Amino acid sequence: MTQIIKECGKTIIKTGARIDTLNAAQFETDIQPALEQGVNLEIDCTELNYMASSGLRIFQATMRTVVRNLGGQMKLTHVNDDIFDILKMTGFTRHIKVER
Amino acid sequence: MKKILRYIRHSLSIRLSLWIVLLATIIFLGSLSYMFSVSRKAVRQEAIDHASQTLENTVLRVSNILDRVEVATNNTDWLTMRHLNTPDSMFAYSRNILKNNPDLYGCSIAFEPYYFKEKGRDFSAYSFRQSPDSIETEQEGNDLYRYFEMDWYLLPKLLDRPCWTEPYIDLDIDSTYTKEMIISYCKPLKDHQGRFIGVISTDISLNWLSQTISAMQPYPNSYNIMLGQGGTFLVHPDSTKLFYESIFTKTLKEPNPQITQLGKAMVAGEEGWRQMRLANKNYYVFYKSLPNTGWSVSILCPESDIFGGYNRLTKVVVAIMFFGLLLMFILFSRIVNSELKPLRQLTKGAETIASGQFGEELPDLGRIDEIGQLTHSFSNMQHSLVNYIDKLKTTTVAKERFESELRIARDIQMSMVPDVFPQHDGLDMYASMTPAKEVGGDLYDYVMQGDKLYFCVGDVSGKGVPASLFMAQSARLFRTLVAEDMMPVDIASRMNNALTENNDRGMFVTMFIGMLHLETGRLDFCNCGHNPPVIDGQFLELHYANQPLGLWEDDPFYGESIADIRGCQLLIYTDGLNEAENQRQEMLGNKRLIELMADATNLDSHQVIDMLVKEVEQHRAGADSNDDLTLMCLKLSNRKRQLTFKNEKQELIRVAEFMEGVCNEQHLDMHMAMKLQVAMEEMVTNVIFYAYPKGICADITLTAESDGKELTFVLSDTGKPFDPTTIKDADIEANPMDREQGGMGIHIMKNIMSEVIYQRLGDTNQLTMKKKL
Question: What ipTM, to 2 d.p.?
Answer without folding.
Answer: 0.94
